[in-house]
Design goal:
Length: 229
């Protein structure tokens, strides 16, 4: 084989390799596990936690450990967590398995005057439930739902940009921001998803995001909630 024939053959082989890589990229899929942090004392006491930076309690630490065991066979490329300590402590169960990257945009919404209020107080609970899903209500010194939704969208844009070729990631968030994240990921209006999606401390969502087509979502039902099957 002369040099010209060799180069032509090499060029053809490279072109074929390029097509193969492009075909693989076209089918690259990002799998996202969306989890909520484990329980805190304020969760247990029925207090509105929001932006208050509380740690996990004993139950929360066990829930985090269970999360690690549940996903022990999953190959994870990265873990993105809210920078609140209850989320970071939950994410620590993946230490050594994947990079753990705290993000302020994944923090919970600050609920202003309602921070720390006990939801067993009927008047407070009624006022909070009336206002919490109002798009532009800052809860008297807190953050609006609109602002939190933008943060969720910004976080997802940053995260997806880190994984152009797909893979598997975990997002550790909160009861308020996770419904917004899920809404953005599966194409549900955030105003609808914010009030309709309710994730427990020990529940896991798995979302598959193909480069084209419709996102698919699964929910892991813990033994304590078999009635949801």
């Amino acid at each position: 084989m002369n040099l010209v024939s060799f180069l032509r053959g090499l060029r053809g082989a490279l072109f074929g390799l390029t097509l193969t890589l492009l075909a693989a990229a076209a089918h690259a899929q990002l799998t996202v596990y969306v989890v909520r942090h484990g329980q805190t004392d304020w969760n247990l006491q029925g207090r509105i936690q929001g932006g208050t930076d509380n740690p996990l309690n004993a139950t929360g630490r066990e829930q985090a450990a269970t999360l690690g065991r549940t996903l022990s066979s999953v190959s994870i490329d990265a873990v993105y967590t809210s920078s609140h300590q209850r989320a970071r402590q939950t994410a620590e169960v993946f230490e050594g398995r994947a990079p753990i990257r705290p993000m302020d945009d994944l923090r919970e919404r600050f609920f202003g005057k309602f921070e720390g209020a006990n939801d067993k107080d009927p008047a407070v609970l009624a006022d909070w439930n009336k206002r919490r899903f109002t798009w532009d209500d800052n809860m008297e010194g807190g953050e609006t739902l609109e602002s939190q939704s933008r943060r969720a969208e910004n976080a997802l844009q940053h995260i997806r940009a880190q994984h152009p070729n797909g893979g598997t990631i975990v997002i550790v968030g909160h009861g308020g921001i996770n419904p917004l994240l899920v809404s953005h990921l599966i194409g549900v209006p955030t105003k609808e998803g914010a009030s309709a999606i309710n994730q427990g401390n020990d529940e896991i969502y798995r979302i598959e995001l193909p480069k084209s087509g419709t996102a698919q979502i699964w929910k892991l039902i813990p033994r304590s909630k078999l009635s949801e099957l």
